[in-house]
Design goal:
By secondary structure, this protein is an all-alpha fold. The protein is 58% helix and 0% strand.
Length: 128
């Protein structure tokens, strides 16, 4: 089967997706002086920054791919319909041509036969 050339416009599912960027942790503080200082725990990152929203990424990716593929499908569908219609019309014309040729042949035979008998009638009138 003949495969069409690869279309660069059709997306492939090999693209690496990254979630929202997580800010880098602050650099470590300078060494603490000998005095005992109680260090505060850094604030926890909100869940939206700690983990990418995979559902939103999936939805955006799905919508983008569907939009791109739909455009290609519409174009291919129009080409296919045009080809099918052209083939169907060509076949119909071939069939009609044969039927018309046969009808025309019969009509011509009848016209010629009638004309010949008419002329023969003038050349040889019926006997009394």
């Amino acid at each position: 089967m003949n495969r069409p050339p690869f279309d660069q416009g059709i997306p492939l599912l090999t693209e690496v997706l990254l979630g929202p960027e997580v800010p880098a942790p602050p650099p470590p503080a300078a060494p603490a002086p000998a005095v005992a200082v109680v260090a505060e725990a850094p604030p926890a990152l909100p869940p939206s920054l700690a983990q990418p929203d995979w559902d939103a990424i999936e939805q955006r990716l799905t919508q983008r791919i569907l939009h791109q593929v739909q455009g290609k499908i519409d174009h291919l569908l129009e080409e296919r319909i045009a080809h099918v219609l052209q083939t169907a019309l060509q076949n119909a014309l071939i069939g009609m041509r044969g039927a018309l040729r046969e009808d025309l042949q019969q009509s011509l035979e009848q016209i010629v036969a009638h004309a010949v008998s008419h002329e023969l009638g003038h050349l040889h009138p019926p006997a009394p």
